[in-house]
Design goal:
Blueprint lengths: L2 H4 L4 E4 L15 H4 L13 E4 L19 E6 L5 E7 L8 E5 L10 H9 L3 E5 L23 H14 L7 E5 L2 H11 L7 E4 L26 H8 L6 E2 L13 H11 L17 H4 L8 E2 L4 H5 L6 H6 L5 H14 L2 H10 L4 H8 L10 E6 L11 H9 L3 E7 L6 H4 L1 H13 L9
Parallel strand pairs: 5-6, 5-7, 7-8, 8-11, 11-12
Antiparallel strand pairs: 1-2, 3-4, 4-6, 9-10
């Protein structure tokens, strides 16, 4: 984060006695959590617990949040003061719906579907997740303790928030992009709380498998290529490709507003070059078919990758799903917080992280047995960026998947690009398979 950004925070700092090897390279795996491959440059070890007084910040959303949605902060009992948007809060006793955003997004990303869900009779809750936006209590240093960002603690974040708001369960949890694994693991681990699930963009493959019957001679499964092995193969391509980038987003030469405009455009249906299709395997040759915003050219940062994709003034004016004032919300919030906290989850949920895998092995063989549905845009490469994930989700990970929807006119930002279609599907799901009267 810049000195200017740090000046906007009221933080508690402590200096660790040991400075880690700053030469180590950390890559962030898009396939592991379903968003974008980014990496940040190492900084000297420090801890900076974010204690922003959000009451002193400008009103959330730069006057673009629809009337009927309010913003407030809630202690979740797990170390965070969680900033949330909520709708349908006026009447007590409504069943809850929890919406988990992705990267680089915010609670704000759900603004277009919250009121239709509230109108259908639900208390709709959209938090800024740990590391994002106006939620405080997390460590924003690069070398922060990674454990709070691991999946089990992210599930605890969700449970604590739900309980703090007076709900023992939620009728539906929805996760988009990096929010999809949080929502999916929540439904897998605590189906008594998270009574149905909607996965958006990032398919859920299920809990990792443990070797079985090896004591009796069964051959252990061949491990998938490690991140480092895949990176080495990508580097051999012409031109060389990589899944990592340096911390150039916050200081993008084109400015944060232009960065977000180009990035959102490039991954949307507005960019006609997005023609996703299934990949055969997790190999360099197959992964190289993915656009540069997922598998970038080697030694090229994300800011430089998306800069040539900046839409024209006419295209920006015609973009009704993301106006210039709405882009500025993202630029303002990320300009204040930086990206480090938002990216911590990728560091610890990457496919080769041994501690995260060990945690998830606890649930090996367990499936998601609550009603579930999948929604994504037809132009979203997030559907296929992890080869085989869609099939695993439909055939083994989710035992009661009642819908699989790829929507016309939408890329990666499906709930923002096509909010009417998404809202209709969510309400139908809640009133059908996910209704309280449906057999669980």
């Amino acid at each position: 984060m810049s000195e200017q950004t740090e000046a906007n925070f009221d933080i508690e700092r402590r200096t660790d006695a040991t400075v880690p090897n700053l030469s180590r390279r950390v890559l962030l795996t898009a396939a592991a959590a379903g968003a974008a491959g980014f990496a940040f440059a190492q900084n000297p070890a420090r801890a900076a617990i974010v204690r922003t007084d959000i009451a002193k910040l400008p009103p959330y959303g730069n006057s673009t949040v629809p009337s009927g949605i309010r913003s407030r902060a809630v202690n979740n009992g797990n170390g965070l003061t969680v900033h949330i948007l909520e709708a349908g809060y006026e009447a007590a006793g409504r069943p809850a719906v929890l919406l988990m955003h992705g990267f680089p997004e915010l609670a704000y990303s759900w603004r277009k579907v919250m009121l239709p869900l509230a109108t259908a009779g639900y208390h709709v809750i959209a938090p800024d997740q740990r590391g994002y936006g106006r939620t405080t209590g997390w460590d924003d240093s690069y070398d922060a303790d990674p454990d709070p960002f691991r999946i089990l603690n992210m599930v605890r974040d969700a449970i604590g928030l739900v309980y703090a708001l007076g709900h023992r369960s939620v009728a539906m949890v929805v996760g988009h992009d990096a929010g999809a694994p949080v929502a999916s693991w929540s439904a897998l681990i605590r189906p008594d709380i998270f009574r149905s699930l909607v996965i958006m963009s990032s398919p859920f493959e299920g809990a990792p498998s443990l070797p079985f019957d090896t004591a009796n001679g069964a051959t252990p499964p061949r491990p998938a290529p490690s991140d480092d092995e895949l990176d080495a193969e990508l580097a051999k391509l012409n031109p060389p490709r990589t899944r990592g980038a340096n911390d150039d987003m916050l200081h993008a030469p084109q400015g944060l507003h232009a960065f977000f405009r180009a990035y959102y455009f490039y991954k949307s249906a507005d960019y006609k070059g997005n023609k996703p299709h299934p990949l055969k395997a997790r190999t360099a040759q197959e992964m190289a078919q993915i656009p540069n915003y997922y598998v970038m050219e080697r030694d090229k940062g994300m800011a430089a990758t998306v800069a040539p994709m900046m839409p024209s003034a006419a295209e920006i004016a015609a973009c009704k799903w993301l106006t210039e004032p709405e882009v500025e919300v993202y630029a303002t919030e990320y300009g204040r917080t930086g990206f480090t906290g938002a990216l911590q989850g990728y560091r610890v949920r990457r496919g080769a992280d041994p501690k995260s895998i060990a945690e998830m092995h606890t649930f090996s063989g367990r499936t998601i047995d609550v009603p579930s549905m999948y929604i994504a845009g037809k132009s979203d490469w997030g559907v296929y960026q992890t080869p085989g994930a869609v099939d695993k989700m439909q055939n083994s990970a989710c035992t009661r998947m009642v819908g699989f929807h790829l929507l016309d006119g939408a890329g990666h930002w499906v709930q923002q690009e096509q909010p009417e279609q998404v809202s209709k599907l969510l309400v139908q799901f809640l009133q059908g398979p996910a209704s309280p009267n449906a057999k669980l």
